[in-house]
Amino acid sequence: MPDFKKLAQDAAAETDAQFVSRVSDLTRMRSTELQKLLDEGMKREDIVAVLDVVKAAGLSNQQKAKNLASIGKGLEVLVGIASKLI
């Protein structure tokens, strides 16, 4: 599983283009989809935090929902991601 926490730390130092490229390499999301999320005002750190929770294999769906709710804009980011995939 990709190290999303490390990615979040690195995200602050990267440009949006670098971030989009790295995350799209680690996920099934296209670069254009990720760029749209950033263009809509979502923070890189929030996107990575949501991906980290969603990919956490050891968590139940209830725990994932609880963790997503605790992320500042976690639900907004999740809805944004879902809208790009549907």
Terminal residue distance: 24 Å
* Beta-strand content estimate: under 5%
Portion of residues within helices: over 70%
- Total strands: 0
Shape: globular
Our count of domains comes out at 1
One letter per element, helices H and strands E, the order comes to HHHHHH
| Weakly predicted, low-confidence segments | none
Please, could you describe this protein's structure?
The protein is mainly alpha-helical. The chain has one domain. 72% of the residues lie in helices and 0% in strands. It contains six helices and no strands. α1 runs antiparallel to α4, α2 packs across α3 and α4 packs across α6. The longest helix is centred in the middle third of the chain and has 12 residues. The protein starts with a helix and ends with a helix.
Topology, pairings included?
Elements: H1 4-11, H2 16-26, H3 31-39, H4 44-55, H5 61-70, H6 74-85
Helix pairs in contact: 1-4, 2-3, 4-6
Main features:
86 residues; mainly alpha; globular
Offer a concise description of the structure.
72% of the residues lie in helices and 0% in strands. The protein has 86 residues and is mostly helical.
